[in-house]
Write a structure and sequence with these properties.
Strand content: 25-35%
Strand order of the largest sheet: 1-2-6-3-7-18
CATH superfamily of the largest domain: Zn peptidases
Number of helices: 9
CATH class of the largest domain: Alpha Beta
Number of domains: 2
Radius of gyration: 24 Å
Shape: elongated
Order of helices and strands: HHEEEEEHEHEEEEEHEEEHEEHEHEEH
């Protein structure tokens, strides 16, 4: 089986998160030279395949087989791949069964390596991601199977295949502020405490403000207000409270304590509550590390261009590798139709990704 045929087979599995749809068994059988470890928790199935060729470094390919629901607006069956003008259509074509197919095929055809090759696949990336890659890595540590390096095959490219790799990601801090006021009649504002008026006074100093200056790898951490609500949708009642929700995609220069101090500074003297949570921590892989340097070289040799390094975008499972000290990069096909109707990937991108992964393994 060659990589495009494998890619189409994977697209046929209706693997809507957290169901792998049978795709993990298929991959396990396909990589029959690899030892398989299954990790299941809370209805999530994960597969770790590894093959040791001898003592040396451990390179892991990571990814997910689960996809988001297809939604409306498809011109063809989202779980029956259709090829038109070189593009292959199907849910997960970009995010990220193209990356899974490329990694699986590259591993299938690898007969030598100075160490260990592995593949970590989850069906819980598009969901809460608690019992997927994070959980598997926690179980691998006492087994001595944490990799030295990892490549997560998420779609990363923008204008053309090969133009960008991710060497880090911003974190994500979520917050909810509840400003307590005093409900009353709008005609008697002196008898009420209007939380809208109080919050309106500090919004100009908070909304869209950069919490740091960023650096060569990260954009500034920005305080982004995502929701404000108060009142009963009537014109004659001053509300008794206001809820403000926000998100900060933070760089390595700003942490959750910095965000708390920022809020408290502006809400000083007000009656309010603050709830903060961090769904992802920022990380950066040294651009001079082996995996970054060899990925750059592999892309250059296969595609003929030098990729840019980026930390932009949302979160991915790469953050869980980084938490275990793994040097991790992300590289995959273009991402212009992820989660959209008629998701598609050009077959030449899939072949190119497979060739880059083959070259990367060879360069190690």
């Amino acid at each position: 089986m060659e990589v495009i045929e494998l890619f189409k087979e994977l697209l046929r599995f209706p693997s809507i998160t957290p169901d792998d749809g049978g795709s993990l068994e298929f991959i396990r059988d396909y990589l029959d030279d690899f030892e398989a470890l299954w990790f299941e928790k809370e209805g999530v199935r994960n597969l770790f395949l590894f093959r040791s060729f001898g003592p040396g470094e451990h390179l892991c390919f990571g990814g997910h087989v689960d996809v988001v629901p297809p939604g409306e607006g498809w011109e063809s069956d989202p779980f029956e791949p259709v090829e038109r003008e070189g593009f292959i259509y199907g849910r997960g074509a970009q995010d990220m069964k193209s990356g899974v197919a490329a990694a699986v095929q590259a591993l299938k055809e690898s007969s030598t390596f100075p160490g260990t090759l592995s593949l970590l696949l989850t069906s819980d990336e598009e969901g809460e991601a608690r019992w997927g890659t994070r959980y598997v890595l926690e179980q691998l540590r006492p087994l001595g199977l944490i990799p030295d390096y990892a490549v997560v095959a998420e779609p990363t490219c923008h204008q053309q295949f090969g133009d960008l790799i991710k060497i880090g990601r911003r974190g994500s801090i979520n917050g909810v502020i509840e400003k307590i006021g005093k409900q009353g009649h709008a005609a008697y504002p002196e008898k009420a405490i209007n939380p809208i008026h109080k919050v309106a006074q500090v919004l100009p100093a908070m909304a869209g403000v950069d919490l740091d200056r960023g650096d060569a790898f990260f954009a500034p951490s920005k305080f982004v207000i995502t929701d404000i609500r108060a009142g009963m949708e009537v014109t004659n009642v001053t509300p008794g409270s206001l809820k403000l929700m926000f998100n900060v995609r933070n760089s390595t220069q700003t942490d959750i304590e910095d965000v708390e101090r920022f809020v408290r500074r502006h809400f000083d003297g007000m009656n309010y509550t603050l709830h903060l949570s961090q769904s992802a921590k920022p990380f950066l892989t040294d651009p001079n590390s082996k995996v970054v340097q060899l990925m750059d070289r592999a892309i250059k040799e296969v595609v003929g261009i030098e990729p840019k390094h980026s930390t932009a975008g949302g979160t991915s499972d790469a953050r869980f590798f980084a938490e275990h000290g793994v040097k991790v990069v992300e590289f995959g096909v273009r991402n212009d139709r992820i989660h959209a109707p008629n998701e598609r990937t050009h077959q030449e991108e899939v072949r190119g990704l497979y060739q880059v992964f083959r070259k990367l393994i060879e360069l190690f």
